[in-house]
Structures are given as C-alpha cells and as structure tokens.
Specification:
The complex is a heterodimer of chains A (65) and B (362). Chain A is built from 1 helix and 5 strands, in the order βββββα. In chain A, the strands form 2 sheets. In chain A, strands 1-2-3 form a 3-stranded antiparallel beta sheet, with no helix packed on it. A two-stranded antiparallel ribbon of chain A has the order 4-5. Chain A is α+β, with helices and mostly antiparallel strands. Chain A has a single domain, classed as SH3 type barrels. Chain B is 38% helix and 17% strand. Chain B has a 5-stranded parallel beta sheet. In chain B, strands 4-3-5-6 form a 4-stranded parallel beta sheet, sandwiched between helices. The two termini of chain B are 34 Å apart. The chains are: A alpha+beta (65), B alpha/beta (362). Chains A and B meet through strand 4, strand 5 and helix 1 of A and helix 2, helix 6, helix 7, helix 9 and helix 11 of B.
C-alpha cells in the first residue's frame, strides 16, 4: 500500500492491513511480498507464478500414462 | 493471487495423483521426507497421503523450529524470567517444556513473560519501558533468523538483548541420511527456508547422497507436484535438485538477508531436542554484538536439560521414525490441550498437526 523507509503498510486481503518490515527485500508499492512474522522475506513474482502453473500443465501432458 | 492461480484445484490434484500412481510400480518403494511443519500441515489438512499409492510414503522430519529447541535453552529463558527480566517469545514457545518448567509455568508463578508476533514487537516494548530489561527469545530456522539479524544490527535499545536459539535446516537433513533404518529416497526441501538460503545448500544431497531433492511451496498442488517430481526421479534412477517453487525461491535465495545473517551471527554446533548435538547447525551472535547477547549479559548458561519425559516418543517423531499415533501417549496422556512433548505443543509440531487434522484417519 505504501512504504516508509524500512516499514511498509501491507494489504493481507479481506481488509487486513499490517505494518511489515521490508528492509531485506527490494519491494515496490503494488508488488506481492511473502511475509514471515512481520518481516517481508521475498517478493513474489506473479509472472513466475503463472509460469509455474503452465509448466506443471506441460509436464503433466508430456508424461506418458 | 492464489485463488486465480488455482493452487488448490482438485482436478489438477487428481491429475497429478494419477501420474504418481502410474509411475509408482516402476519407482518401487519411495519414502519421501519433508522437513517443514507447514508441509506437514498441508499434507494432513488436505489429506494428501490418501491420494498416494501404497509404496509412496511421505514422512515428517525435524521441521518444527519450536519442537527442536532443547530443554536447556528453555531453562535459560526461564532463568532470565525468574531474574525479573521481561522475556518475550512467540506464542508457540510459551508451553514448550523445560527441564523443570515451561515459560508459561514461570509466568503463572509471577514472571513477566510476554507473547510477541515478531521481534519488532519486542523492540517496541523495550523502547516504551526503558526502566526494564527485555530479552527476545529468538527461536526459528533460516526463515526467522534474518528478522533477528535486522533488529540486532539495527541499533536496538540498550535494555533489549537476544537469547538466540536459531537453527539451520541442511545439517538436520544430512543427519537423517545417517539414520540407518530410516531409508529415505527423496527430500522435499522447505520453501520458505529456501527463500532465504536459495538452492546451493541442498546441492550435496543429490551429488553426494544420490538423493532426489525438490524445493516445494505450501499449497496442496505444490506439495503433490514435488512428490510427483521425486517419484519421477526415483523411477528413472536419477538424483537431481529441482525447484518447484520458483515464484518465491530464487537460486541465490535472498542475498540481502544472507548478508545480514552473516554480519550478525556465527555458525556453531547446537543441540536439537530429541536429536542431540549437530555440528554447524546453530547461530550465535557475533562478538561485536556481545552487548546484546542475553547469555553473556546476564550470565545464564545451561549445558544440559531434560529433553524427553519418560514415555514420550518425541525424539522418534521428530526424525520421522514413528508416526504420532504410534506413540503410546498420543491423544491419551498427551493432547493439544495438555501437551506432554514439544511435538504436541507447537502448531508446527507433527503430533499437534495430526491431532488437529487426522486423529480419526489413522
């Protein structure tokens, strides 16, 4: 939602907002972050997530029954 | 995002399960070990074991950071609390048994023990009450250690120090391979530990031990997919390191977090409840941060504690040698309401996960 130095206001969905420490990630406003105990530990990439799903589908289709 | 991406899609799950079944005869006995309490939760909560053929088994290794804290370190926290220091800890840690008592029992007897959501809460508390001494009981694997490092390096208030009980996962995985009759055929590596440490620390498992190793996420499809990937490797007689969770786990991990951990901690040998001493498996604050090391500041050091009570089989559950239901105390003398062993205390402990999700299924 917004970032102020090492602190960011993160939208957890369904109206839940919480202050999260973002000092160990390079996160920009609007990106998804993985939060572990009030510290963002990684930026989650939507593109990667979509690619994972298509990869799964292709692996499953390619394997002979 | 997860909803849109269908990481819980039942059709996809069935599809993967049928692929696993079709590979199973060729793979033969395939015993897969994960080392993460959250993986156990996903597997039991979504009933994933019921989708697997008989010869594919998934067992839970030492994946609960709270369960493996040795009693001696709980005793240290209790001693600090009894000295009149405010001890802050994660909720799960409160009821973990020490040699004589848990932190909850110390609190009941008058000590000031407070639950925090994160180390940052302890920092805020210490700032607000400068007249009191605070200790943060830093429990957790590589996922949690960076947050302790951030605060220890970030000029913490003078009245805050850290009782560091962080542990590292790869040495525990290596230990499991030395347990003769466990006979593991593949590893599911923990996704969120890997988000920090990356892929490199797992390279030795396929290379040295010929062990298929797949880093996996925590949605049911993630876990099923990783099982499929391991069964496939096993059926082909190969051993590779694969990453099923690239949306979070980068090959290099999180370099900034690793840098801060390196700056704050040195790696040393450490005791694990139910396992014993593992070399190079624990973190301790560097000498430059000695002023913030609670053990040095308040001179507490407990060498030996009483880890396992008579009749409790936590030491066998922790390494995946027995299932919770095989412990004679499970859901009899030891329940989530009145836990005896550490595995029943934490929400990531195998016994507690089973008690809450599959007690009926076994």
């Amino acid at each position: 939602m917004n970032i102020d130095g090492t602190k960011a206001n993160v939208d957890f969905g369904q109206g839940v907002l919480r202050e999260v420490n973002v000092s160990i990630v390079e996160a920009k406003v609007g990106e998804y972050v993985l939060v572990h105990e009030a510290y963002a530990i990684q930026v989650i990439e939507e593109k990667e997530a979509l690619e994972t799903l298509s990869l799964w589908n292709s692996i499953l289709e390619a394997t002979p029954q | 995002m997860a909803e849109n991406l269908k990481f819980r899609n039942p059709e996809l799950a069935q599809n993967i399960a049928s692929k696993i079944k079709s590979l199973a005869p060729k793979a033969g006995k395939t015993k897969i070990c994960h080392v993460c309490g959250t993986h156990e939760w996903t597997i039991t909560h979504f009933g994933l074991r019921s989708l697997l053929p008989q010869n594919v088994e998934v067992i839970a290794g030492p994946g609960c950071p709270v369960c493996i804290v040795p009693a001696a370190e709980i005793d240290e926290a209790v001693q600090l609390a009894q000295k009149g220091i405010v001890v802050t800890c994660f909720g799960d840690v409160l009821r973990v048994p020490g040699s004589k008592m848990s932190l909850l029992e110390a609190k009941a007897a008058g000590a000031d023990v407070r639950i925090v959501y994160a180390v940052s809460d302890a920092v805020e508390m210490a700032k607000h009450e400068p007249g009191k001494q605070f200790v943060f009981f830093a429990v957790g694997f590589e996922t949690t250690a960076p947050s302790t490092a951030v605060e220890a390096l970030g000029n913490p208030p003078k009245n805050l120090s850290f009782l560091v009980s962080h542990r590292l996962i790869p040495p525990a995985m290596e230990l499991l391979l030395g347990v003769g009759d466990l006979e593991i055929d593949g590893f599911i590596a923990p996704g969120h530990v890997s988000a920090i440490i990356g892929l490199k620390p797992y390279e030795l498992f396929p290379r040295v031990y010929r062990m298929p190793t797949v880093v996996a996420g925590f949605e049911p499809i993630d876990v099923l997919m990783s099982i499929y990937m391991i069964v496939k490797q096993h059926s082909e007689g190969t051993a590779k390191l694969e990453n099923e969770y690239p949306r979070v786990v980068k090959p290099e991990g999180n370099p900034k977090a690793l840098e801060m951990m390196k700056e704050a901690f040195t790696v040393t040998g450490g005791n694990w409840r139910g396992i014993g001493r593992l070399p190079d498996s624990a973190l301790q604050l560097r000498e430059s941060l000695a002023d913030f090391d609670a053990r040095l500041k308040f001179n507490v050091h407990v060498e030996q504690g009483k880890d396992i009570l008579l009749g409790c089989e936590c030491h066998l559950v922790i390494i995946g040698k027995i299932k919770p239901a095989q412990c004679p105390m499970f859901m009899k003398a030891c329940t989530p309401e009145k836990p005896v062993g550490a595995c029943m205390v934490s929400s990531e402990g195998t016994c507690r996960v089973w008690a809450k999700n599959v007690a009926i299924q076994v």
